[in-house]
Write a structure and sequence with these properties.
Elements: H1 2-27, H2 34-41, H3 43-74, H4 77-104, H5 107-130, H6 136-164, H7 170-221, E1 234-235, E2 238-239, H8 241-261, H9 263-293, H10 298-322, H11 328-345, H12 352-379, H13 386-411, H14 417-436
Antiparallel strand pairs: 1-2
Length: 459
């Protein structure tokens, strides 16, 4: 009883401290230096955010380098495509498993070890290339290992953000996370070619390894509070294989049960998966659209990708400044509404400038959609279960993409790219309205946006 009372007092003190810190951050929200104030208010988040942004910059360069290496070593476009699939599959399959262990283990070591391991494996590729020993199977092994490590790192970061940022400021934290990804993608596109010329392929890959090491060091520096972890199955004071397996499946079922009973989380995970499926054709058909519909070349294609990154970058800042007063469902509605509208109107676009405008509009929608979805999950999930729920979210949303890519290739043989874009854009709009109009979201009778709802048993 005394321990329970002490735990409750500690929790109350923590909530009080979070509220005081959150009030300080919100008090400066509308000022020009709002981002700097926010980062200064949450130093643990700042360390993680800077590390992740630098790591993502390395990723954007690395993605180009690995595909180029496959082409250089084999000349096979088929192997290039399979490398991309290999990069996705481990994360899709392992996210739920990783989520269980993230809830059992201290989360900071999970992030540190995952990033450090990726630094080693990526650096090994650079060393093998310099030594003239690199073979294509090395790339497949390293890509698989890095994807496995990422399956642990990504849900752990989602869970940790909810630990180090007060509930009312989660939208801002997630907006900044989206901003960092957009910024890294933008600079990756701009810096890739100069870096390849200056450092060569091996140097660029070595630089990516260094960014992983930097991310590990920033995570090691961040002060992340511990939470009670789930214990593995024990029998007579010792861990048994049967007990551990039983406990593992029990933990996984607990995460799935929460997703099912928290209807807001369930519907948003479904919406995320369907949206990822709908946006899949853009990855496959945008080069075809630029060349055959707009009659442009690869230079204009890079400008299209740049326009999306610039739109996402601007919306990350805008979402942090103005959307903290909006409920999560409204953020998702606005974000996917903008993305679906831009996507659908590509059916009519025959001008390069119009296309750039529509793609920019889609980029603007990315930050509120991602921030709203992630914040809704974080606020409605108990901290001790958040790793499992984040893992399930990752699996369902990611698994839709390869299916979409495969179907797009087949459908595009008979249907023109503008028609596919228009149809899937309308699909995004219809699905968004249908799902978010469910009574559980209460769009027209919303609760206070900053409320922490994870103590409730249902959405």
């Amino acid at each position: 009883m005394a321990e329970d009372a002490a735990a409750k007092r500690a929790e109350a003190d923590e909530r009080s401290g979070e509220a005081e810190i959150g009030a300080k951050a919100r008090g400066n929200a509308e000022r020009p230096w709002a981002v700097l104030t926010f980062l200064r208010t949450y130093p643990a988040f700042t360390w993680l955010w800077v590390g992740q942004m630098v790591s993502r910059l390395g990723d954007s360069i690395d993605a180009i380098a690995f595909v180029w290496l496959v082409l250089e070593l084999t000349g096979s476009t088929l192997l290039m495509g399979t490398l991309l699939v290999v990069n996705m599959l481990p994360s899709i399959l392992l996210n739920p498993v990783a989520g269980v262990w993230i809830d059992r283990l201290p989360r900071r070591p999970v992030i540190v070890i995952s990033d450090a391991a990726r630094a080693v494996t990526t650096g090994l590729v650079a060393a093998l290339y310099l030594a003239g020993l690199l073979e294509v199977w090395h790339l497949y092994v390293v890509t698989t290992l890095n994807s496995i490590f990422e399956a642990f790192a990504v849900p752990a970061r989602v869970a940790v953000i909810a630990q180090v940022v007060s509930g009312e400021d989660l939208v801002s934290a997630n907006s900044l996370t989206s901003l960092s990804s957009s910024l890294a993608s933008l600079f990756g596109l701009l810096l890739a070619a100069p870096l390849f010329k200056l450092l060569g392929i091996a140097g660029a890959i070595g630089l990516d390894a260094a960014t992983f090491l930097f991310a590990a060091l920033t995570a090691l520096t961040a002060s992340i509070p511990e939470i009670p972890t789930v214990s593995a199955g024990q029998e007579g004071g010792r861990t048994t294989l049967t007990g551990a397996l039983t406990s593992f499946w029990s933990d996984l079922r607990e995460g799935m049960h929460l997703v099912i009973t928290q209807r807001v989380i369930l519907y948003l995970i479904i919406l995320a998966g369907l949206a990822n499926f709908a946006f899949g054709p853009l990855e496959v058909l945008m080069p075809v659209y630029v060349r055959e519909v707009l009659k442009m070349d690869v230079g204009q294609l890079s400008q299209v990708y740049l326009a999306f990154s610039l739109g996402a970058l601007a919306s990350g800042l805008l979402t942090m400044r103005v959307a903290r007063k909006w409920p999560e469902a409204v953020l998702v509605l606005v974000g996917l509404g903008l993305m679906g509208t831009g996507y659908a109107f590509l059916y009519f676009a025959r001008s390069f400038l119009v296309t750039l405008g529509l793609i920019t509009l889609m980029g603007i929608g990315q930050a509120p959609a991602q921030a709203g979805l992630r914040t809704a999950v974080q606020r409605r999930t108990p901290p001790a279960v958040l790793g499992r729920v984040a893992g399930l979210l990752g699996t369902f949303s990611l698994s839709a993409t390869p299916l979409s890519l495969a179907l797009t290739g087949a459908v595009a043989e008979a249907v023109a790219a503008p028609v596919i874009f228009g149809a899937f854009g309308l699909l995004v709009l219809v699905l968004t309205v249908l799902i978010l109009s469910r009574p559980v979201f209460g769009l027209f009778q919303t609760c206070k946006p900053g409320a922490i709802l994870w103590k409730k048993s249902s959405g």
